[in-house]
Write a sequence for this structure.
């Protein structure tokens, strides 16, 4: 408690942060388990495929991809190795840019992502959205916008 | 969009979930970077030490520990290997319980955790709490309570 006071935090404030972590852990565990059971696809793989699918040309520099998912640089390298072995992602050098490799979504990767997406969306609905009333979802959005992209 | 409708989600609802992920990624990246620079301690290690410090007898079964942090079982095993090598955690068998090993916080681990905690708390304050007004923190707490431990 003294430590908290020294750093200008109250116990309640720290509790809110830890609730955010717990909420994230709980929902993430459900999604992970659903994706593994139904599609043999870990959530981290799903997230990487989804980030690539939404990027222009279905490709991202490894550094940019690492910024978008919660993986260390070495963890991401191992994951991309695995996805490449499974044919879901390829690595490509950039002709006019020496800043390293791109990870590129393959057609097989896009198909795998499409297969898994209904499972993912059902999990988001049942484990997150369905626990909040419509006005709470709107309030949550306002609060999270401040946290996700602070000005 | 058709997919979303099929699963009963709106685009706004999915966006809120992804904001929660982004907020978590952003804050987590800051904490990770601060802890590495100041204490050469990855955030995952900090989280494990903190979970053990708060458990009765400063010990948790590997399975219970895995439930509390966002790591796969194999990722946790590797991390505990590293922490054990550094003397921050020990492994102990449980005399009257065959359900596997405990991870136990050592005195050195407790000291390392104490050193790093001010950095961690400052990060939580500057990257999370300071971005919200006091009434927003209270509202966030109410919403997250529903998500962290649904009844």
């Amino acid at each position: 408690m003294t430590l908290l006071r020294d750093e200008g935090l109250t116990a309640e404030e720290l509790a809110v942060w830890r609730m955010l972590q717990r909420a994230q852990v709980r929902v993430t565990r459900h999604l992970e388990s659903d994706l593994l059971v139904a599609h043999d696809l870990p959530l981290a793989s799903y997230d990487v495929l989804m980030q690539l699918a939404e990027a222009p040309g279905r490709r991202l520099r490894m550094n940019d991809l690492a910024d978008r998912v919660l993986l260390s640089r070495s963890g991401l390298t191992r994951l991309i190795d695995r996805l490449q072995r499974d044919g879901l992602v390829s690595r490509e050098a950039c002709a006019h840019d020496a800043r390293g490799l791109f990870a590129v979504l393959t057609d097989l990767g896009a198909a795998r992502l499409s297969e898994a997406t209904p499972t993912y969306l059902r999990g988001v609905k049942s484990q997150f959205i369905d626990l909040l009333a419509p006005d709470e979802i709107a309030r949550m959005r306002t609060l999270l916008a401040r946290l996700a992209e602070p000005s």
Chain A has a mean pLDDT of 89. The two ends of chain A are 31 Å apart (CA to CA). DSSP finds seven helices and three strands in chain A.
